[in-house]
Amino acid sequence: MANERTFLIELGCEELPPGAIAPLAEALAAGLCRKMDDAELPHGEVHAWGTPRRLTVAIERLADIQPDRHIEKLGPALKAAYKDGEPTKAALGFARSCGVDISELEEIDTDKGLRLGHRHVETGQSTCELMPAIAESAVNELPVPKNMRWGDSRVEFSRPVHWLVMLHGEDVIPATILGLTSDRITYGHRFHAPEAIELVNADTYLEVLETRGKVLADMNRRRQEVLRQVQDQAKALKATAVIDDDLLTEVTGLVEWPVALAGRFDERFLEVPPECLVSSMKANQKYFHLLDEQDNLIPAFITISNIESRDPRQVIEGNERVIRPRLADAAFFFETDRKRTLASRCDELSKVVFQQKLGTLADKSRRTRVVAAAIASSIGSPIEHAERAAELAKCDLVTEMVLEFPELQGIMGAYYARFDEEAEPVARALYQQYLPRFAGDETPDEPTGVALALADRLDTLTGIFGIGQRPSGTRDPFALRRASISVLSILVRGEYNLDLRELLGLATKQHSNLPNADTVVNDVLEYMLDRFRTWAQDAGMPVEVYQAVRARPVTRPYDFERRLKAVHHFSQRDEARALAAANKRVANILSKQDGEVAHEVDVALLTEPAEKALHDAIVSASDRALPLIGEGDYAQALDALAELKGPVDAFFDQVMVMAEDDQIRRNRLAILASLQQLFLEIADISLLPQG
Asked: 144-153, 160-169, 245-254: which range is least confident on average?
C-alpha cells in the first residue's frame, strides 16, 4: 500500500494585489486537483492559503505513487481479425499499435461479440515524477490579470517571484517553475523574520511560519485575527467598529502579521457629513471607522499595521498625520460645494455627456422629469416634487465632493438639497434614486424617490436599447440587468401595480431619433420580464411556474409576482398535475381545429351526464374564481379551480369530444375552450409538470 503524505507548494513573490491573492491561491489549488485527478493520484483535503508575498497549496494524504492501471484495449472483431486461420492486416496493425506480437493478443467477449484485444498492467509512476509537470502546468494556467517581467528574465508573472517550495512530506520534489528551482527554504515576514527558514516537513508549514516567521499564512485565520483585534480595539474605546466585508478582505490581503491600532482625528471634522469622512478613511487609508451608542461617528479610527512596533505610538501618530490632510480635503470640498446651490449647477449638466447618441445629463434630466411626473401622478405623489427631484437628480455629480468620491453620489445630493431648503421629499428622493444598489438592498420608501428611481432607470433602458446596445453575454456596460431588476424590485416590494408597457412607451417618447424606436418597448419589456426567471428560481420555484405565467400577456410586475406565488402554491396541490395534463390535452385538441372555437355552450345540447357535470362545475368555479381574479387573489382563485379535477377527469373518461354530430362536437369543444380560458385568466398551467 502506498504511503500518504502532505504535499506542499509555496510560490514566494513580491507583494501581490490584495484582491488577487485568494482567487490565485484557489485557482492554483483547483488546477492541481484537476491535474492530479486526471493522473488518478489519490489525495485528501486541499487547502489554499496566501499572503501578499506567497501563494500556497497544501494537499493532505497524497500517495507516494500512482496506482497501477489495468488497461484493456479492444481491436477488430474476431471475424475480421483472421482469415483462413491467418491474421489479417487489421489484426497485425492492432498488435503493432499495442507494441506487442500478434500471439500476445487475446479474445475478449463484449456486448458486440468476440473481439481481439490486449490487456496489460501499466505500472504507476511515483508522485515525485508526476508532480513537477503537474505543478508547472497549474502555475502556468493561473488567471493572472496582468503579467510582468523583471530584470533580464523572460519569465512572466503577476509580480517578481523569488523562491519555490515543493515538499512531499519531508522530501523535496525537484522542479523548475517560473525560473525557480524548488527547495525547502521559505521566508518569513519582510521585517520581523527576513532570514531563510528551512521547512523540515510539509505538515509543519503553518506552525513554522507563524512561530518563526511572524506570518499568518492561512487567509481565513488572518481575517479572523484582523476582525478580533479591530473589535477589541473598539471595545477599549467603548465604541462599535463598522466592519465592511470588502474592506476586511482587502486589509487581510495587505498584511502578513496584523496588528490593530487605534488613532484619533480632530473633532472639528465631524461638522462634515459622516459619509464623506468614512469614504476618505476607507478609500484612501483602509481604516475602520467607529460609532458611539447612538450610531454617531466618533473622531477615531482603527488601522491594521503589518508590523509589531516596539513603539506603537509612533505608528499611530504617523497614521494620524496622514489622515489629517485627507479629512481636511473632504472638509474643503464640502465647504466649497456649499457656496453654491444644487439648482445653480443644472446648466453644468449640459457639458457632461451621458451617452454620445443619447445626449448629456441635462437631456437625461429633461426626459426623466416627464416620466417621473407621470409616475408620481399614478401613485398619488405630488407631481411638483417629482419634477423638482428630476431636475436636481444629477447635479451632485458635478460637485467637488462627488468628483473626488463617486460613491457619494445621491448621498451628497440629499445633504446639499437640505442645506438649500428643498422640500424633504425631494432631498430624500435624490438619495433614493439609486436604490436598490445591489441584490437584497432596500428599495425607495418615499413616493417621490420611487418616481425618480423608476424614471431614471426606464430612461436608461429605453435609450440604450433604442440605439441597439442591449446587453450580450457578460457585456453590460450600462448595468441594464441591474436596472431591470431594480425596477421590478421597486414595483413588487412597493406593491405598485403599474403597467410596464405603458411606462416604457412614455419613456421612449421622450427620446428623439432612436434608431430602434419602433421595437424598443417590446424589446425592453421582454428583456425585463425575462428577469423574473431568476427571481422565481431564487425563490425556490420550478422553472415551469415561471413559464406558465410568462406565457400570458402580463405586463404589470407586481401582478406578475402575485401570479408566480399563486401558481407555485397551486403546483404543490395534488390536483395540479392532473389538471395540467388535462389543460395540455385541451390545448392540443383546440389547436387542431380550424378557426377559433366559440366559448358559448348550448345547454340543450348537453346529453352526457359527465359533460353536464363539467359544464355546471365550470360555471360554478367561474362564479367563485373570476371575482377573486379581478381582486388579484390568484391563490384563492386557483384553489377554487382545483375542484374541477374530478369533473374534468370524468369528462375525458366518459365523453367522446370529437362526436360525429357537428353541433354536439362544437358544443363539447366550447366546454373545453371555456375551461382553458378560465385557467388562462391566471396562467397557462398546461406548462406545469404533468402526471
From this structure: 144-153
pLDDT for residue 1: 44
Residues 467, 602: Cα–Cα separation, whole Å: 54
Q: Which is more confidently placed, 668 or 224?
A: 224
Rounded to whole angstroms, how far apart are CA atoms 550 and 528?
11
Predicted confidence (pLDDT) at residue 246 exceeds the cutoff of 90:
yes
pTM comes to 0.81
Judge whether 658 and 665 are in contact, CB under 8 Å.
yes
Q: 39 is written with which cell numbers?
A: 493522473
Element (H, E) at 119: strand 113-122
Task: Compute the distance between CA of residue 411 and CA of residue 185 in angstroms, rounded to an integer.
Answer: 52
300, 259 Cβ separation under 8 angstroms: no
φ, ψ of residue 563 in degrees (nearest 5):
-65, -40
Note the pLDDT tens digit of each residue in 574-631: 999 999 998 999 888 988 888 788 878 888 888 899 989 999 999 999 999 999 999 9
CA–CA–CA angle 225, 229, 234 (5° rounding): 150
Overall average pLDDT of the 361-380 stretch: 97
C-alpha 185/C-alpha 198 separation (Å) is 5
User: How many Cα atoms occupy the beta-carbon half-sphere of 47 within 13 Å?
Assistant: 21
For the record, the C-alpha cell of 186 comes out as 521559505
Q: Quick one: cell of 575? A: 390536483
Q: Among candidates 497, 460, 496, 501, which has minimal Cα distance to 481?
A: 460
Return the CA Rg of the chain: 35
Distances (CA, A) of 681 to 500, 544, 674: 19, 17, 11
Q: Which of 316, 221, 333, 228 is nearest to 276 (CA)?
A: 333
Alpha-helical regions (H) of 467-519:
480-493, 500-509
In order of 221, 306, 331, 335, the CA distances from 51 in angstroms are 11, 11, 36, 41
Q: Copy the grid coordinates of residue 533.
A: 426567471
What is the distance between the alpha carbons of residues 356 and 365, in angstroms, rounded to a whole number? 15
How far is it, in rounded angstroms, from Cα 306 to Cα 310? 13
Closest residue by Cα to residue 617 from 578, 646, 586, 582: 646
Give the tens place of pLDDT for each residue, 38-81: 888 889 999 999 999 999 999 999 998 877 777 778 888 877 78
* SS3 label, residue 172: strand
Torsions phi, psi for 519 (to 5 deg): -115, -5
**CB-count exposure of residue 88 (10 Å: 0-12, 13-18, 19+):** middle
- For range 167-175, the mean pLDDT: 96
**Could you tell me the three cell numbers for 446?**
418615499
- Residue 159 burial (CB count, 10 A): 17
Query: Can you read off the three cell numbers belonging to residue 467?
Result: 440605439
At 166, which helix (H) or strand (E)? strand 161-168
- The residue type of 662 is D
Q: What are phi and psi of 253, to 5 degrees?
A: -80, -5
Tell me what percent of the residues of the chain surpass a pLDDT of 90: 77
**Tens digit of pLDDT for each residue in 460-493?**
999 999 999 988 877 888 999 999 999 999 999 9
Separation CA 512–CA 492 (nearest Å): 30
Q: What is the pLDDT of residue 2?
A: 59
Which residues share a beta bridge with 290? Answer: 241
Closest CA to 257 of 296, 306, 295: 306
620 phi-psi bin (left φ>0, alpha ψ -120 to 50, beta other): alpha
Q: Are the C-beta atoms of 124 and 68 separated by less than 8 Å?
A: yes
For residue 437, the one-letter residue type is R
Cell reading at 320: 494620524
Mean pLDDT on 557-564: 96
